[in-house]
Amino acid sequence: MEREQMTAEQKQQIVEHFQLFEKASKSLFKKYDAAIKEMKTRFEILDADLEYRFNRNPIHHMESRLKTPKSVFEKLQRYEVPITLQSVEEHILDVAGMRVIVSYIDDVYAMVKVLSMQDDLKIVKVKDYIKNPKPNGYRSLHVIVKVPVYFLDRKQYVPVEIQFRTVAMDFWASLEHTLKYKQDVQLEGIDMFDELKNCSEIIEDVERRMQFRLPMSKKRRANEESNSKNRKLAWQKLSLLSRWLKLVVKNRALAENRSAAKLATESFCAQK
After folding, report:
1. Domain containing residue 250
2. Which residue of 95, 149, 158, 218 is most buried, as measured by CB atoms within 10 A?
3. Per-10-residue mean pLDDT for the chain, 272 residues long?
4. Same domain (yes/no): 11, 63
C-alpha cells in the first residue's frame, strides 16, 4: 500500500509496529555486531601473517556498518514478509556489512581464496562485479559469509556481507555514490555518468598494468605510451569532477545559510 493512500490510523499502526520491532531487535543487532568483530579479527590476523611471511600488507583498510532498524524494517516491508526477528534472520543477509580495501585486483581473489580455506566459515553467496561490472562501471566483489559467533550458551552462524575492492575501485565508488544523490547537479557539456563509466574502464586497465610489469616490444611500448596519455586524461577528468562537486556542495551550503539569515532578519523586522 502506498504511504500517500494510507489513513492516519494505518500510519500510526506502522509507527507503533516499528517501535516494537526496534525495541525487540536490540539483542539481534548485538549478534550482528559480534559477527563483524569476529570477521575484523580474522582479517587482521591474515594481514599480519602475510606481512610476516611475505613482507607486505595487502589490506589497505577496512570499514564496517550495521543496517539501522528502520532500514531493516523497510526492507522486510518490501519483501512482503512478516515483520519479525525470525524474518530478519531468514530473509536479510546484509544486516552486517564490511568493506575490505586492498592494493591489487589479485589481492581481492587471494583474500576470498584464503577465506574459503577456513573450514569453520561458510561462503553463502558470491557476486563478482569485477569480472562482470555493473552498467554504470561499478566494480567490486561481494561475498556473503556465515561466521560462527560464540555466546555463553551456544554457537551461532551469523551472515556478514563483505565487499572486496581495490583502493582505486573504492575511490570511484565513493564519487559515484555522491553523484547519485546529487542528480540535480549538472556540468555543462559533460555527461558525468558516462565519464565515470569511462574512468572506471581506464582504472581497471591501469590496475592490471600496474600489477603485471612484463617485457614490452617497441610496438607495444609505443601503444603503452599512447594509452598512458589517455589514462592520465581520464584521471584528470575524475579528479576535476571530484573537486567541482565539492565546490558545488560548499556553495550550496553557503547559499542556504545566507537564505536562512535573510529570512531571520525579515522575520525580526516584521515583528518590530
Report:
1. 182-271
2. 95
3. 68 88 92 97 94 90 95 94 94 97 92 94 96 90 97 94 94 77 52 70 73 50 53 61 64 63 56 55
4. yes
- How many residues are given for the chain? 272
Enter the pTM of the model.
0.72
In the chain, the amino acid numbered 263 is L
**175 falls within a domain:** no
Tally of domains in the chain: 2
Are 158 and 149 in contact by the 8 Å Cβ rule? The answer is yes
Measured CA to CA in angstroms, residue 139 lies from 12, 200, 233 at distances of 41, 8, 21
Long-range pairs, 21-26, Cβ under 8 A, ≥24: 21/69, 21/73, 21/83, 22/69, 22/70, 22/73, 24/85, 25/69, 25/72, 25/85, 25/88
Final residue belonging to a domain, choices 110, 143, 167:
167
